[in-house]
Amino acid sequence: MQVGILGGTGPAGRALATRVAATGATVVIGSRDEARAAETAREIRESWPGYALGVIGMRNDKAALSDLVVLATAFEAASETATSLAEELSGRVLVSMANGMNRVGKELQPVLPARGSIAATIQAALPATKVTAAFHHLPAREFSDIVAAIESDVLVCADDEEAALTTTAFIESIPGLRALRAGSLAMAGAVEALTAVLVNVNIRYRCHTTLRLMGVPSDPRSHES
Ligand SMILES: NC(=O)c1ccc[n+]([C@@H]2O[C@H](COP(=O)([O-])OP(=O)(O)OC[C@H]3O[C@@H](n4cnc5c(N)ncnc54)[C@H](OP(=O)(O)O)[C@@H]3O)[C@@H](O)[C@H]2O)c1
Question: What whole-number distance in Å separates Cα of residue 178 and Cα of residue 64?
């Protein structure tokens, strides 16, 4: 499988690219600038000699032609970037991991667009694309270290059932991650906003939290309604 990561030159995209490539998938780092994408891909490959990571870099419009596409641009650019690639993204699953946040004094506070979430805003703009929301709560630094195990739940919001299944399968192809269906894109605002809460916890306690919901059955799929 080929995974494209739009804005994959930032810490979140690099971390996801590294973990995904470690599963054996091919990753296309996307960027507005082809040279920056290629340089980022080279840095990732050279950071992990011996792993033969299949990471390459291209412009966002080329990365958007992948089997599955993740939107990892800065949150302010997420909607504009996705909309500019409407043709390339038509018929594809687009996983939005963007969280809107602003610093207010010492605190990070969530920023939610008028439609309630970045993911829902993009879905409204791109009706021919199946938008899902996931990966919001994974700390980039810890996620990028493929030698260190990471244990985390990943909340998935989606309106389209097939896209939700594709996204959960993608998440669970990465060791240590458990995908939990959190509802339709109407829930994505709560999921995006929770990130600011977790960042404030991280700041206060000088840590990097991941999310783990207690009480979920050990075989969640067989209990799904
Ligand atoms: N950092 C984390 O731990 C983390 C965890 C979970 C989710 N997230 C979310 O994941 C996304 C990426 O996070 P990040 O920390 O990697 O962000 P970032 O470094 O601020 O931005 C990522 C990339 O977005 C592109 N970009 C910036 N401004 C743009 C513009 N005006 N138009 C088009 N592209 C633009 C840049 O790529 P080019 O310049 O190469 O085009 C940049 O490298 C964010 O939405 C964030 O909320 C972050």
Answer: 25
